[in-house]
Amino acid sequence: MFSRITAEFNDPDTAEIALRRVRESVRGIVRTGMSYNKISDKAERLKGGSIYTILPTGLTMQNYMTAVMESPASVDTIPEPYRRRNTKVYIICASESCGSVTSILGSMGGLGIKSVM
Hints:
By secondary structure, the chain is α+β, with helices and mostly antiparallel strands. It is about 30% helix and about 40% strand. Strands 2-5-1-6 form a four-stranded antiparallel β-sheet, covered by helices on one side. A two-stranded antiparallel sheet has the order 3-4.
């Protein structure tokens, strides 16, 4: 018989490390997977970046000059619910491995661990 175990992590990197640890150390794993908000990757890339704005200015009828304005990129352009990087993982395994999987997920920082047989 198989069991489905779900847990939640704070970010995808920690979840990926936990899943790898489970696959390497526990026998009877059938399938693993994770899901998280992909829009949050955009917010992570904006940290420490710059936004460049080109301002056209007309001098005469035929000649134009442009100015470039640089400003620091703000993560606030993406609303808060989309910046969250909470990751949900699931593991389908044999029922005898359920205790080992839940203990590994808990030790790696998993929250709200649930097991369904």
